[in-house]
Amino acid sequence: MKSVFDIIIVGAGPIGLACALKAKREGLQYLIIEKGALVNSLYNYPVNMTFFSTSEKLEIGGVPFVSNTIKPTRNESLEYYRRVTIASGLSLHLFEEVKTISQEEELFTVHTSKDKYTTSNIIIATGFYDLPFLLNIPGEALPKVTHYYKDPHFYAFQKVLVIGASNSAVDAALETYRKGAEVTMVIREKDIGERVKYWVRPDIINRVKEGTINAFFNSTVAAIRENEVDINTNDGLVTIANDWVIAMTGYQPNLTFLEKIGIKLSADKVRKPLYDTDTHETNIKGIYLAGVICGGMDTHSLFIENSREHAVKIIDNILHHKMAAL
């Protein structure tokens, strides 16, 4: 007969790992379940990405993060979180997706793509990088279109359209341009995003001004075809030749999953989940939220650096309930 866990943690991102580190140190029986790779969101970042935060702000569990520069890279962060996982002997199942959660009295059954588990508490730390905002235009499903940008070399000497003006869009435009791509950006707003990394923003602005990267502001993509793209601009419809489309349109948390298991969301456009900010327990006793998922559609308010404390609040509350039940 399988044992009953104290905690099942859904998501093996930095905050899910932080919750596991705290749970292990407190002697709780836990398991992390992750539908992708370890720190799957970070793995899907562009290969050359540099973090906005300094390395000490990305640390979890009091384990030092030593970087070659002030701001660590994606590869350094992957190495750091992997080493933390190994050194701490964290218990986790990767490439196993949580499908449903059911409850009977005070116990939950977590049904996954591979098995089912019984637990007293659940921590959902699923982030927001799994569901891209779709364009909902003709041609979006073509193989030439991607919502995840990885490596610039792939696009060398190709006609590349980058949609968006966020950090990810700007990185994609600059990196592919420097590998020899002919880059065009389509930007809904009138300017490059204000949140773009301060050491990168002048670079993209200057490339656009000199014309080495073409940009359509106040514009949207109307349709994508095999060899060209239609763009709605202030001057009317423009059609350009195109080989690849990198749609950096942003991502959203899986709030449907939260609703399906009974967690309440706010009625406004933010759709913020209902939880106690002191304990992070939701309206369902025994189910907690940690990390970016706590912000609902407001995905810019929570980061690794200001979500690490969630682990302490949650585990302390679980311990409090555990002691009260004795």
Write a structural description:
There is one protein chain. The chain is an alpha/beta fold and 326 residues long. The protein is 24% helix and 24% strand. It contains eight helices and 17 strands. The protein has helices spanning 14-25, 40-43, 74-88, 167-178, 201-210, 255-260, 304-307, 309-324, and strands spanning 5-10, 30-33, 92-93, 98-104, 107-112, 116-124, 131-132, 145-146, 159-163, 182-186, 214-216, 220-224, 228-233, 236-241, 244-247, 251-252, 287-289. Strands 1, 2, 3, 4, 5, 6 and 17 form a seven-stranded mixed β-sheet that branches. Strand 5 and strand 6 (116-124) form a beta hairpin. The longest helix has 16 residues, at 309-324.
What's the order of the H and E elements?
Answer: EHEHHEEEEEEEHEHEEEEEEHEHH
Main pleated sheet? 7 strands, mixed
Span of the ends, CA to CA: 23 Å
Query: Ranges with pLDDT <50 over ≥5 residues?
Result: none
Radius of gyration: 22 Å
Strand tally is 17
Question: Which secondary structure elements does this structure contain, and how are they paired or packed?
Answer:
Elements: E1 5-10, H1 14-25, E2 30-33, H2 40-43, H3 74-88, E3 92-93, E4 98-104, E5 107-112, E6 116-124, E7 131-132, E8 145-146, E9 159-163, H4 167-178, E10 182-186, H5 201-210, E11 214-216, E12 220-224, E13 228-233, E14 236-241, E15 244-247, E16 251-252, H6 255-260, E17 287-289, H7 304-307, H8 309-324
Parallel strand pairs: 1-2, 1-6, 2-3, 6-17, 8-15, 9-10, 9-15, 10-11
Antiparallel strand pairs: 4-5, 5-6, 7-16, 12-13, 13-14
Helix pairs in contact: 1-8
